[in-house]
């Protein structure tokens, strides 16, 4: 079935609107653990993938090394992550501490509440459809361009 209808408005703006609203939803709940949603995500990645080099963590999280470095600092200062020696004198590895594991566990309880509330508000079928649409769109858009590839 083909349609002559065309999208109205800017797709980027619409997606950003949705992303802001969903981020606010998760941030409100996860903040009750004393974490930002981005911090919870960072702790979760290090817990499941670590210890690992910052450059590998940045790649896994689809962020630049400088953004990762900024995001790591408060977690290191809080004692939830450490930056230790790597395989040679020049390399470093990000590790999660026992306190970081406990903080991540606390954050996970709130993340689950946020996820369940979102499932209730939107309906599980709509959330599943949204996930499928996002996955399909990401596949069609292909891999992300390399940072700095344009010059």
From TrEMBL:
Gene3D superfamilies: Winged helix-like DNA-binding domain superfamily/Winged helix DNA-binding domain. Signal peptide: none annotated. Keywords: DNA-binding. InterPro entries: HTH_MarR-typ, MarR/SlyA-like, WH-like_DNA-bd_sf, WH_DNA-bd_sf. One of its GO terms (molecular function) is DNA binding. The keyword DNA-binding applies. Transmembrane segments: none annotated. The keyword Transcription does not apply. It comes from the Bacteria. Pfam families: MarR_2. SUPFAM superfamilies: Winged helix' DNA-binding domain. Residues 33-90 form the HTH marR-type domain. This is DNA-binding MarR family transcriptional regulator. The lineage of its organism: Bacteria, Pseudomonadati, Pseudomonadota, Betaproteobacteria, Burkholderiales.
């Amino acid at each position: 079935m083909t349609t002559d209808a065309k999208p109205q408005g800017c797709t980027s703006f619409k997606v950003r609107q949705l992303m802001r609203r969903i981020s606010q939803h998760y941030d409100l709940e996860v903040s009750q653990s004393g974490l930002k949603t981005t911090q919870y995500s960072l702790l979760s990645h290090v817990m499941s993938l670590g210890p690992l080099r910052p450059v590998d963590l940045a790649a896994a999280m689809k962020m630049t090394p400088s953004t990762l470095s900024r995001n790591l600092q408060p977690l290191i200062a809080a004692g939830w992550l450490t930056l230790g020696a790597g395989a040679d004198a020049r390399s470093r590895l990000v590790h999660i501490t026992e306190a970081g594991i406990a903080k991540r566990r606390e954050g996970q309880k709130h993340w689950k509440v946020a996820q369940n509330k979102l499932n209730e508000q939107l309906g599980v079928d709509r959330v599943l459809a949204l996930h499928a649409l996002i996955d399909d769109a990401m596949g069609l858009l292909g891999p992300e361009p390399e940072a700095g590839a344009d010059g």
